[in-house]
Amino acid sequence: MLDHDKTDGDGTGQSGKGVWKSGKGRGRATPKGRQYDDVALAEVRALLGDRPRRRDLLIEFLHLIQDEYGHQSAAHLRALAEDMRLSMAEVWEVATFYAHFDPLRENDPVPPDLTIRVCDSLSCELAGSETLIAALESGHDPAKVRVLRAPCMGRCDTAPVLEIGHRHIDHATPELVAQTLEAGDLHAVIPDYEDLAAYLAGGGYVRLTDLRAGGDWQAVQQTIADSGLRGLGGAGFPSGKKWGFVRGNAGPRYMAVNGDEGEPGTFKDRYYLERVPHLFLEGMLIAAWAVEAERVYLYMRDEYPAVLHILATEIAALERAGLIEPGYVDLRRGAGAYICGEESAMIESIEGKRGLPRHRPPYVAQVGLFGQPTLVHNIETCHWIARILREGPEILSSVERNGRKGLRSYSVSGRVADPGVHLLPAGSTIRDVIAAAGGMADGHVFKAYQPGGPSSGLLPASIDDVPLDFDTLQPLGSFIGSAAVVVLSDHDRARDAALNMLRFFEAESCGQCTPCRVGCEKAVKLMQAKIWDTGLLEEVSQAMVDASICGLGQAAPNPIKLVMRHFAEEVGGGVAPMPDSDGYDTNDALDG
Ligand SMILES: Cc1cc2nc3c(=O)[nH]c(=O)nc-3n(C[C@H](O)[C@H](O)[C@H](O)COP(=O)(O)O)c2cc1C
Ligand code: SF4
Ligand code: FES
Hints:
The protein is α/β, with parallel strands linked by helices and 592 residues long. It has 26 helices and 15 strands. It has 5 domains: 38-49 and 64-96, no CATH class; 114-183, 3-Layer(aba) Sandwich (Glutaredoxin); 196-391, Rossmann fold (3-Layer(aba) Sandwich), CATH 3.40.50; 404-488, Ubiquitin-like (UB roll) (Roll); 494-590, Up-down Bundle (de novo design (two linked rop proteins)), CATH 1.20.1440. α4 packs across α5. The two termini are 42 Å apart. Flavin mononucleotide (FMN) binds at residues 231-235, 237, 258, 260-263, 339, 341-343, 376-378, 381, 550-552, 590-591.
């Protein structure tokens, strides 16, 4: 036993004397730190109601304050800390991590009532977001309207896009903004979708009910393996195989669903959720059954308010129908942080913390949510699990093109005539994808493409015969990831697209490790020079690949390396060939 345990009751070792009186000074007239304010505490308590003050609900509570007041005052944050028995530092570090929160110090100005977030990621930049931002900034009084840049909102097929309140404006113009403000409805538009009654009428949830009544999880796992389904969040891990890993660890086990969809250019998850949410929900519940998950945490990005509404409505309908216990599916709202799509960062965020990726091992299948084995699946992966079990593994395994099997939901945007989600054979080449998207847009000649989000870099039009599938692009220093295809034309410069991508990574790096944090920042500076310092960029890239903790920092150099290799004339010429990026496996990199 330590001495202070014997001598005093308060752990100061001073037998009742206040610790600040024991030194030489005269002591403090006031207690240390910010004190809470009674009014703010009452306001916070009114907002939180009788919700349990659990640490993992911190982000949900921060949302309540942000939604009610449009910002988070120091007084409210201090009161929240008091009410949750947390330190102010813990609350502050979480509030400042997420882009959709506005935590304020005492003397900070309160943001205007209205915020317009304009997407400045690649497809929106190609569609004129810079001009749009300039017009909005000059057309509005900054005291009344705040114009902010924001990363991809998952609506790249209707670029440029912005969000006012919770209302998105597709093909945005200053005139459409003015009309929306005049109409005054800033709520999300809820699309028509297949609700529970319609899904049940078509035979929905029969498979789930049968399996729960006496199914064999290993037989289901085999069916998934026969279909060839691989994780569609980007890493491509064989889906059924994961279940065995998770089950190999003693329970309680959890499932966490990744609805972050933050990779710019990706909008397939939103596409399915806004149309057939129950295919996803049934697939999710089948996977949860297979690993005997105690509870499912569904992490959905805040940029999708319509989807959040649909999911909340349909989860409540499932509870009423007795298909799930109340509270079995816990819907969590992200708060604007791309890195929370990385599975361990997502788990940290569900636990109410900053989204800092964890070191591995242990893997989340072993030590995941709340320290327990956790199955993580992407939204679209769950959608296909339901389809495979309802329609048979052949819906994927019988499709073959260019030696590849299966189907792929390509999110296609940029300089094509008909952007959107196009479901095609997984062996499709970029020429097939462009053809499915109605060909090139009028007046545009195909020049380059991003095959799978900025992490996959850029390939030239000359590489047009490679199937855009898992494992096929690695020899080219790229990978398919979430199949977010952005097509560039002779109107565009590859170097500008690469700079856009690196600016995104710079803004979204969690900052935890130096190679990524400093590397992204340095690369953005170097890439603005007319002639790139290719030697230094190569060095920076290598350090990032070698020493970053997670896939963000490891894959961020791909656009730099591929532009130097294929578009050398744009960055100064005379570039030495780069080694292929097979120093690491990008599929592994995506999972850290
Ligand atoms: C930086 C980074 C961002 C990611 N973003 C997402 C995402 O938005 N959605 C997603 O499902 N997976 C994302 N992933 C992949 C996840 O870590 C994980 O592999 C995936 O959710 C597992 O589900 P799956 O096997 O069904 O694909 C990301 C990975 C990295 C490294
Ligand atoms: S690589 Fe970047 S995003 Fe990933 S942990 Fe390191 S700093 Fe964070
Ligand atoms: S919505 Fe703007 S790039 Fe995706």
